[in-house]
């Protein structure tokens, strides 16, 4: 949502997205597909994040006293108009992975 607000602020100052300022969001929210220009975003694997969180929580509930650990979940970049000017369905397949 912050990236969508940033695009509006950029446009309100007479600048163009992506010609003058490229914008990338994070979280892969559905709303990003419906703004103009459509938002390029980093989309984390939310299902995997939930799995990792629940697994770690259950370990703690069961008495695991180990120190905190850093967990990582996969993500992918969804390239769209806010960085390229080209809708994602027209972008090269590798740009959508």
Describe the protein.
32% of the residues lie in helices and 12% in strands. The protein is built from 3 helices and 3 strands. It has one domain (2-85). By secondary structure, it is an alpha+beta fold. Strands 1-2-3 form a 3-stranded mixed sheet.
Name the descriptors.
single chain; 97 residues; alpha+beta; three-stranded mixed beta sheet; 12% strand; disordered C terminus
Give the topology.
Blueprint: H1 2-12, E1 24-26, E2 40-44, H2 46-61, E3 75-78, H3 81-84
Parallel strand pairs: 1-2
Antiparallel strand pairs: 2-3
According to DSSP, the number of beta strands is: 3
* Spatial order of strands in the largest sheet: 1-2-3
Structural class: alpha+beta
Which stretches are low in confidence, meaning pLDDT under 50 for 5 or more residues running? 93-97
Distance between the termini: 22 Å
Major sheet description: 3 strands, mixed
Note the run of SSEs as H and E.
Answer: HEEHEH
Short summary of the structure?
Helices cover 32% and strands 12% of the residues.
């Amino acid at each position: 949502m912050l990236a969508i607000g940033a695009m509006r602020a950029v446009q309100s100052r007479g600048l163009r997205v992506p010609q003058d300022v490229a914008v990338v969001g994070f979280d892969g929210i559905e709303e990003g597909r419906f703004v103009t220009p459509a938002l390029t975003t980093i989309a984390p694997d939310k299902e995997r994040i939930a799995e990792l969180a629940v697994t770690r929580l259950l370990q703690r509930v069961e008495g695991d006293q180990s120190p905190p650990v850093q967990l990582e979940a996969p993500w992918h970049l969804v390239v769209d108009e806010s960085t390229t000017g080209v809708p994602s369905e027209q972008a090269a397949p590798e740009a959508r992975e």
